[in-house]
Amino acid sequence: MENFERVLNNAKSGDGQAMEILILEYMPLINSILSKAGKRIDKEDLRQYLIIKFIENTKKFKKID
Predict the structure, then answer these.
(1) At CB < 8 A and 24+ separation, what contacts does 4-7 make?
(2) Helix (H, G, I), strand (E, B) or coil at 52
C-alpha cells in the first residue's frame, strides 16, 4: 500500500476513510482466518468481531520494514 504510514496515522487520528482503506487492505487476512474457522462458528459474527478488534487495536499498529 502506498503511503502506509500516512494512511495509518490518519486512521489513528479518527479518519474514517483511512480506516476503511486499512480494513480493505487487511480483508484478505481476515478472510483467510475465516476460511480456517470451524463449521460450528458463525463466520459473519467472527468477521464482525475481527473487524471490531482491528479498529480497536489500530493505535498499536507499527510499520515493519
Answers:
(1) 4/63, 5/63
(2) helix
How many other CB atoms sit within 10 Å of the CB of residue 15? 14
Residue 59: band (very low, low, confident or very high) from pLDDT cuts 50, 70, 90: confident
* CA–CA gap between residue 2 and residue 28 (Å, rounded): 17
Q: Which H or E run includes 28?
A: helix 16-35
d(CA 30, CA 33): 5
**Exposed/middle/buried for 29, CB within 10 Å: 0-12, 13-18, 19+?**
exposed
Measured from the Cβ of residue 7, the count of other Cβ atoms closer than 10 Å reads 19
Grid cell 520494514 in the structure block, residue? 65
On whether the CB atoms of residues 19 and 11 are closer than 8 A, the answer is yes
